[in-house]
Amino acid sequence: MENSSGNRGGLMNSTQADNVTMSGGGLYSLATKGAKDVIDLATPRVIEAVNSMDLSASASRFTMADVGCADGGTSLDMVREVLTEVQNKAPGCQCTVVYCDQTANDFNALIDIVHGRTRFSSWLSDMPNAYSLVSGSSFYLQAVPDASLDLVFSATAMHWLSRKPCDLNDHVHVVGASNEEYRAFADHARQDWETILLCRARELRPGGRMVLVNFCRDPQGRYLGNTGGVNMFDTLRDIWKEFLVSGKITEQEYRTMTLPQYYNTVEEFTAPLQDPANPVYQAGLRLEDIETRIVPCPFARQYAVDGNPEQFADGLIPTIRSWNQSIFRAGLSARRSRQDKDAIIEQYYTTYRNKVLEDPRGHGMDYVHAYMTISRI
Ligand SMILES: C[S@@+](CC[C@H](N)C(=O)[O-])C[C@H]1O[C@@H](n2cnc3c(N)ncnc32)[C@H](O)[C@@H]1O
To answer: Domain containing 14: what range?
Structure first.
C-alpha cells in the first residue's frame, strides 16, 4: 500500500503496511506476556543507555518515545524504571513519553492503559513531573521535530515492512521463501530499515540513545516460533494449504496470505550503522552494541510444568492470533460476507488449536530478538 499522505521529510512514500493491527481493547497486552518478558529483559540495557548519555544533574527536560507501542501495557514497567532513573539523576526533571504507533492502532486502549483506567498499574498516575503524549505517525515517518528526543525505545515492531514487496507463492512468511521472492523482500527490508533509522536520526538529539529490540534471524538461523520444535510459520502455512486443498479458500486468497514482515540478521541490522558511505552513518548514528537473545514461550514453559494441553493451547493461540489475524482476514476476498470471513478465521485458529491439543510437543512461540543500543553523535 502506498500512503499518499506520507513523504514528510522527503524520506519515502509509503508509511505503513495495510491491515497491520494488534488485538484491540487492551487484549494485546493481556495476550502477549512473552512480549512483556522481552521488554523486561531489555530494561537494564535501557537504563545503561540513560546512564551513558550526557544527562546533567540540572537537566530540566527529558523526552523519550516508545515507537510501535501497541496499547502500551507491555512497556509500563520499563518506562517507570527509566523515568525513575532520570529523576534520580536530575531531580525535578520534567519527563515526557511520546507513545507512537500507526494510525490503525487502538489508541483508546493505549490511553486507558497509560492513564491507569485498567488493571495495569501505570507510571503516569504515581510519578511526579511526568507526562504522556500520543502520536499516530508511522515509524517510516519523522514523528517529532528535529533533535527533540533524548531516548528512543522500540520493541518487536520494526519487522513490519512499509508494504508487501510481493505475494509469496507458497508460504505466509518470507522465512519460507527462496530466490526472487526472497530477494524482493530482502531488498525492500534493507531500504525500510534505512528509512526507519534516518527518521530516528533526525528525531534524536546529539548524544541521545536508542534501544531497539527487533525480531531477527539469529546466527544459528533461529527466529520467532522456530527454535528447534514445530515451526510456527510452517504450521500457519500448512493450515491455509489444507484450506486451499479442501476448497475453503481460493488460490488467489492463499497467495494473498503473505505477511509483510522481514527478520533481519545481525549483519543486516548492523550494515548501515557501520558503513561510512551509508546515509545512516552519515546522519550520525553509531552502533554501540548488539546481541541476540531468545525469550522462551511462556505458555510452552508453563505446559512443561503442568502438562495441561488445554491451558497451553488457550494461551498460545491468542498470542499467535494477536498479530496475524488482521493480515489473514484482509487476505480473504472482498466478495465474501463479513460472516463468511469471520467463520473462516475462527476455523483457521481452531484448526491450529486442535493441532496443539492433538500433540502439544514442540509447539510454542519462542521469541528471537536482536537487542541493540545505538547512539547519535
Ligand atoms: C507486536 S506489537 C509490539 C508492541 C510493543 N512494542 C511490545 O513490544 O509489546 C507491534 C506494533 O508495531 C506497530 N506497527 C507496525 N507497523 C508500524 C508502523 N509502520 N509504524 C508504527 N507502528 C507500527 C503495530 O501497530 C503494533 O502496535
So the answer is: 8-376
C-alpha cell at 331: 487476505
Ligand 1 proximity of 99 Cβ (cutoff 6 Å): no
Looking at ligand 1, which atom is closest to the CA of residue 74? 9
pLDDT one digit per residue (tens) for the chain, 377 residues: 223 333 333 333 356 676 666 656 555 555 678 999 999 999 999 999 999 998 998 899 999 999 999 999 999 999 999 999 999 999 999 999 999 999 999 999 999 999 999 989 999 998 999 999 999 999 999 999 999 999 999 999 999 999 999 999 999 999 999 999 999 999 999 999 999 999 999 999 999 999 999 999 999 999 999 999 999 999 999 999 999 999 999 999 999 999 999 999 999 999 999 999 999 999 999 999 999 999 999 999 999 999 999 999 999 999 999 999 999 999 999 999 999 999 999 999 999 999 999 999 999 999 999 999 999 99
Nearest CA to ligand 1 atom 8: 155
- Nearest-10 crossing angle of helices 309-331, 298-306: 150
Q: Relative to the CA of 213, which ligand 1 atom is closest? A: 8
Question: Is residue 193 domain-resident?
Answer: yes
Query: Ligand 1 centre from 359 Cα, in Å?
Result: 32
Judge whether 122 lies within some domain: yes
Q: Could you give the strand order of the β-sheet that contains 149-155, starting from the edge strand earlier in sequence?
A: 130-135, 94-100, 61-67, 149-155, 204-215, 367-376, 285-295
Give the count of domains, the chain.
1
**CATH number for the domain harbouring residue 280:** 3.40.50.150
Cell numbers 533526525: residue: 202
* 74 occurs within a structural domain: yes
SS (H, E, C) 201-254: HHHEEEEEEEEEEEEECCCCCCECCECCCCCHHHHHHHHHHHHHHCCCCCHHHH
**The pTM is what?**
0.93
Ligand 1 lined by 69 (C-beta under 6 Å): yes
Q: Quote the cell numbers at residue 210.
A: 536508542
In a domain, 1, yes or no: no
